[in-house]
Amino acid sequence: QGRANEQEGNAKFDLPRKSLHTYIWQEVQRHNQETDQWLVINRKVYDVTGWVDRHPGGRQVLNYYAGEDATDVFRAMHPDPDIVLLYLKPLLIGELAPEEPNQERNKNSQLVEDFQELRRTLETMNMFNANLGFFFLHFAQVLILEALAWVIVWHFGSGWLITIFISFLLVVAQVQGAILQHDLGHLSIFKKSKWNRLMQKVVMGHFEGLSAKWWNNRHFQHHVKTNIYPKDPDIDVGPLFVIGELQPVKVCLEILSTREIFQEVALRKVYTLDIAWASSFYIRYFITFGPFYGIFGTMVLLESPWVAYITQMSHIPMKMSKEENQDWFSTQVLATCNVEQSLFNDWFTGHLNFQIEHHLFPTMPCHNYHKVAPLVKSLCAKHGLQYVNKPILKAFGDILRALTCFRT
């Protein structure tokens, strides 16, 4: 039965066969260098060396899986594998020899098979289909809050109490906009990827003032190698604090400055369209609030550590390690924790209180996480993996407890 399910699940990945060359895992694992990168997807062997610079998710994502089985991460990050097949076909160089296992021998084959069966079950349950009405209301929330803030300051002036109140409204709008662009960046709202990417540019650029490409490049690395040093950029950003037992890590308990973001973009690649969208945000904000607060005052209105707390509370207290080449399920569960569900927690975190489910299924719409959580928890129990779920205040406290003092 398991073999039949595997064949059924892999059928859509099968490519025309012309007496493909066969490889053993030892041979595949030798091709893990910057200039020589092979990887395995559903037993097919691909040479992606010449493709890395054109990969929409960034070159590092492919670099990190060179010489490894990438079946589960490939399926996790691509909502429509049929389209990706068009790009994979010319990269195909062979397949694993019949006597070779589906993944490296150090991985738990039964756990891998059980997780893939779980994904097929969730696809049958339509858990990857988005409720567009849910996301429309989410976007409407952002628009209404921003408009309300301007109307209030225009009508009542810029006194201290008014300023505090509209700052709160604008921070909520900013955070909820950031959460929305996160869903768009994972292609989890629209069935057509191009609409997700277009709307992400609009929301991330015009409503957040940041580069969508810059965010995607960093965030996808975080997803594919969560809490793995030094591959996860979220735990490798500078020697300010020491987290865990591996390395000094700076924890950004405030939103990254615009200056830092544009420096990184300029150093790597100039994203003209992203810069144009981001510029429109600052132009709009200065026109709207500049007459009341000036340039400095307008920028101060937007400062908040909210997003950083949402993201860091699920990872910083969890396991951090160097590369161990574990299976996808174990890697994500050990490096991630959840926060208990409530109406407030769901809204405050944008449903990212279900970070375990999000990391296992990044393209799943966030409103479905709570529905699949019991199945994920059951699979964890079956294989002896701890499914961590904690109160939100404890999660905030664990951020501070995970930090030691400044490095000397």
UniProtKB/TrEMBL annotation:
Q: Which CDD domains match?
A: Delta6-FADS-like
> InterPro entries in the record, alphabetically?
Cyt_B5-like_heme/steroid-bd (IPR001199), Cyt_B5-like_heme/steroid_sf (IPR036400), FA_desaturase_dom (IPR005804), Fatty_acid_desaturase (IPR012171)
Keyword hit for Ribonucleoprotein: no
A Pfam family annotated for this chain is FA_desaturase
Q: How does it sit in the membrane?
A: Multi-pass membrane protein
Q: Where in the cell is it found?
A: Endoplasmic reticulum membrane
A single Gene Ontology molecular function, please? Answer: oxidoreductase activity, acting on paired donors, with oxidation of a pair of donors resulting in the reduction of molecular oxygen to two molecules of water
SUPFAM superfamilies (alphabetical): Cytochrome b5-like heme/steroid binding domain (SSF55856)
Cytochrome b5 heme-binding domain spans which residues?
20-97
The biological pathway it contributes to is: Lipid metabolism; polyunsaturated fatty acid biosynthesis
GO annotations under biological process? unsaturated fatty acid biosynthetic process
Report which superkingdom the organism of origin falls in: Eukaryota
Q: What is this protein called?
A: Cytochrome b5 heme-binding domain-containing protein
